[in-house]
Amino acid sequence: CFYQPMPLKASLEIEYQVLDGAGLDIDFHLASPEGRTLVFEQRKSDGVHTVETEVGDYMFCFDNTFSTISEKVIFFELILDNMGEQEEEQEDWKKYITGTDMLDMKLEDILESINSIKSRLSKSGHIQTLLRAFEARDRNIQESNFDRVNFWSMVNLVVMVVVSAIQVYMLKSLFEDKRKSRT
Question: What's in the keyword line of the UniProt record (predicted)?
Fold first, then answer.
């Protein structure tokens, strides 16, 4: 289980994905600071959940007790929005600027475009992180399939060699002279 402290009226988004392990499934549980269950999913390979928060520690757990034999590798990401810090940072620059309304307007336009670029870069980073997680899961599946194909190819090769040896022996036995010759 993991705990994330959150302020009032923020946004908590949890995204998870099982990258490796038998069945590629896991149980997920998200609980509010009061202990109320917000999300409970059983045997899912991935999920995305967004919650408007209250003040307190949110608990989210990944449970693999149903699978006692296999381990799981999980990728998860927390996206925290509206944490209250940005508003203070955005207002800090205004106390250093004195001048005309035209200057204030241009600075606000610049600030708006910078924030737009920042949010787009953040989304790009988020998408790249997700693509890396998908690539890791696909690579694990591919390596597992490769090992399985190699194993069964070796089994098939051994069976073919044994069958060919038996056929040669049987063919030789057909041409042996089993009669006793008197000389």
Answer: Endoplasmic reticulum, Membrane, Signal, Transmembrane, Transmembrane helix
46: its two tokens: 């991935």
Cα(18)–Cα(69) distance, rounded to whole angstroms? 16
The whole-number average pLDDT for the span 22-48 is: 90
Say if CB 84 and CB 8 are below 8 A apart: no
DSSP 8-state class, residue 164: H
52 contacts 167 by C-beta, under 8 angstroms? no
Backbone angles phi and psi of 160, in degrees to 5 = -65, -40
pLDDT single digits (tens) 130-147: 888 888 888 888 998 999
**What does the pLDDT read at residue 161?**
97
Give the global pTM. 0.55
Cβ distance 56 to 6 under 8 Å? yes
For residue 92, give the amino acid letter: D
The strand ranges marked E within the chain are 2-6, 11-20, 26-31, 37-44, 46-52, 56-63, 73-81
Number of other CB atoms surrounding residue 10 within 10 Å? 16
Output the average pLDDT for the chain.
Answer: 84
